[in-house]
Amino acid sequence: MTAPDDRAPARQGALRRLDTLSYLLDNSIPVPGTKARFGVDAVIGLIPGFGDAAGAVMSAYIVVQAARLGAPVPSLLRMLLNVGIEALFGAVPFIGDLFDAAFKSNARNVALLRRERERPGSTRGGSTAVVLAVLIALIVILGGIGWMAFLVLRAVWGAIT
């Protein structure tokens, strides 16, 4: 017989918070006259440089929490890929913001975490090593975004002057 998970209420609370955050970032703003929705992530992405980095940091929080909740490594890699794809394409002015609004990496990642949590035995206690590896991967992603933003701004500045 397995021991009951004493942290189950805390984990459910964490999942509810992640649901709320992903909704805010990806689906909280309705497009009038349609069923389409987008979120704060697409709006703040309109701020050059800062917006994409801020969105990636908020997306990173979801991935780190998934690691803490014991998501398996393949799922965490998929989540990192989702964040990386959205960050990479989101860095393209305006078109990237439309991509952000459609791709919804945060909602994808929380749905993936929920699917893993529903499968018996697919999650385990969060490993410090896995959480640290996820943090390092996210720092690399954010550094790449920052570098790309710097190169774009330098090119624009060179074209202006």
Q: Can you tell me the overall shape?
A: globular
In quaternary terms, these chains amount to single chain
The low-confidence runs, each spanning 5 or more residues with pLDDT under 50, are: none
Strand arrangement, major sheet: 1-2
Give Rg in angstroms: 17 Å
- Alpha-beta classification: mainly alpha
Q: What helical percentage do the residues reach?
A: over 70%
Percent of sequence in beta strands: under 5%
Order of helices and strands: HEEHHHHHH
Give the count of helical stretches. Answer: 7
Instruction: Determine the mean pLDDT.
Output: 83
Largest sheet: 2 strands, antiparallel
Gap from first CA to last CA: 72 Å
Give the number of DSSP strands. 2
Describe the structure.
- With 161 residues, this protein is mostly helical.
- 73% of the residues lie in helices and 2% in strands.
- It is built from 7 helices and 2 strands, in the order αββαααααα.
- Strands 1-2 form a two-stranded antiparallel ribbon.
- Strand 1 (29-30) and strand 2 (37-38) form a beta hairpin.
- Helix 4 packs antiparallel against helix 5 (95-103).
- The radius of gyration is 17 Å and the shape is globular.
- It starts with 7 loop residues before the first helix and ends with a helix.
- The mean pLDDT is 83.
